[in-house]
Amino acid sequence: MANANSKSANNSVDKQEELAASREAVSEAYNKLIDAKNHFKVAAESAGVDVKNDATEQLLKGRDKASELADQATGYMKEKPLVTAGIAFAAGFLASKVLSSK
Q1: Region at 39 (left for phi over 0; alpha for psi -120 to 50; beta for the rest)
Q2: Which ranges are annotated Low complexity under compositional bias (predicted)?
Q3: How many domains does the structure of the chain reveal?
């Protein structure tokens, strides 16, 4: 009988140890999941910032290029006003011919 009680006590202790080990494993897995979630969040935010910075940089480059082209056009118009007027007249004439309804 003492032997049966000893086996029952050992089984109970083994089950408690297994239960404790399982709880610890689940807790550890949960903590790793939370860490992974936080790392993913940081990576996503960083990627978003990188995309935003790249887009802003491209916008600024485009704005600078447009400003440079506008300055060149203004300079050309000041240097050669008759040629500019002729080009404007020709463009207007062509546009009126293309858009006129017959």
Answers
A1: alpha
A2: 1-12
A3: 1
Q: Write out pLDDT tens, residues 34-75.
A: 888 888 888 878 777 778 888 899 999 999 999 999 999 899
The Cα-based distances of 16 to 8, 19, 29 in angstroms read: 12, 5, 20
pTM of the model as a whole:
0.43
Residue 67 lies in domain: 2-99
Residue 69 — left, alpha, or beta (φ > 0 → left; ψ -120 to 50 → alpha)? alpha
Residue 84 in contact with residue 77, Cβ under 8 Å?
yes
Site of tokens 């860490």: 35
